[in-house]
Amino acid sequence: MKILLINLPRYNGISVTREGRCELLAPYRIDPPATLLIIASILREKNHDIEFIDANGLNLDYSYVNKFFKKRFFDVVIFTFAAKISDYELKICEIVKGANPECITIGYSWYGKYFYQEILSEYPNLDILMIEDPFSIIEDLITTIENKGELNNIGGISYRNSNKNIKINRELKKRVKIEDLPLPAYDLVKSFQNYHIFSPLLRPYALVYAGKGCPYSCQYCLVANTKYSSRTADSIVKELKYLQNEKCVKYVWFFDEIFTLNRKKIIEMCVKIKKEKIKIKWFCDSRVELVDLKMLKMMKKAGCIGISYGVESGSQKILNSMNKGTKVSQAMQALQWTRKARIPIQLNLLLGYVGENEETLKETEIFVKNTLPEILQISKISPMFGSEFVKLCLKNQWIDDRSSWKEKLNASPSDLKNYPPLSLDLDKEIKKLRKILRFNPKWWIITLFTLLRNKDLILPVVGAFLKHSSSINLI
Ligand code: SF4
What we know:
The protein is α/β, with parallel strands linked by helices. It is about 40% helix and about 15% strand.
């Protein structure tokens, strides 16, 4: 079949990331569409005729896309989309159908599993919505379309049947393991110069999945209790080698929920990276109890120049309330080890969870004073649809269940009503936490030394300081 995979245009000029749970506006980075490139690879193995456009990466707008479809014919168009801006994203379906009503449109969004009915009702030109892992669906789905078979045999999709009724096949027939996936079809990307992470200076850049899913149960998180599967060290290193040698990639972000979940694999991967003389610098996310000094030192030698830790709070009471499953002492230890290994630390905090009060905020301030992370990312609790926290909010009537699906998706902290922690001035607390770092000479010295030991970051950090870059998170 003749299939086009399209990474949709930017939103009002702002780059959009559409990778699994991560549907976000990202003015500070441009991610290559790894999910679409893996889908391309799966379909090419089945001899489908694949084309790819990265409208986001190349900054092509909908008028370009419109003209493109007037000239070209495809049997199927596949895309990922950010449901929170679906009015904008799903214009693609009108454009495709306007040019060729026979072309089948297939979309994937993380939130499809919650709002398939609403999405398919509101956007009649979207034919099929993948509501589960697209890698486990796409091959059978396209084969069925090609053979004019019945869609009711395909698990993990929602669609309209011949009577125009919306149907859902929730259960996947089988879930493909990430280790069994082919390498993304990187040859479809002309240049990785179009992509960067954190700063336009950190390029050419690629987003790589070394594993996927998370077995933990943090109450505020969308990915909690999802099936974890991981690639082998050999396959990750093969991908890095290809990206370095064939695509001149210099920076990678491992997009796993928890990169260090499988210690043995990480150690093996670090050894192989050294052996293969791979010079790519990389970033990852981790949990504080899943690192140790030996592993961190090996990661540093293998190119790691940044770890983001979801510490969330310096109060044990709040960590317990979040069901985080970590201890403040573990967080303290992990950050000390990371500094000893000379890896820059990004500390993520989440203020205002259930039970937060003046005392617990004070404990977080003390934690920040004692650890002085180079980067501090602070969020306020928000009723993110799909998290356990939202269930708690509904039970306690902290949010209104009657809001529309789009309001639910775009809910913010201000939608919480009679929620005790919001009597605290969290905006003031955020400023206070930032000042703890900025007015501490020791933090400046630590940051300066960190930069000197991670030279790739010097210019991007200086640039960010000058520009005061900001970010808008949708999730
Ligand atoms: S916050 Fe991190 S560790 Fe917790 S459930 Fe989500 S991905 Fe897993």
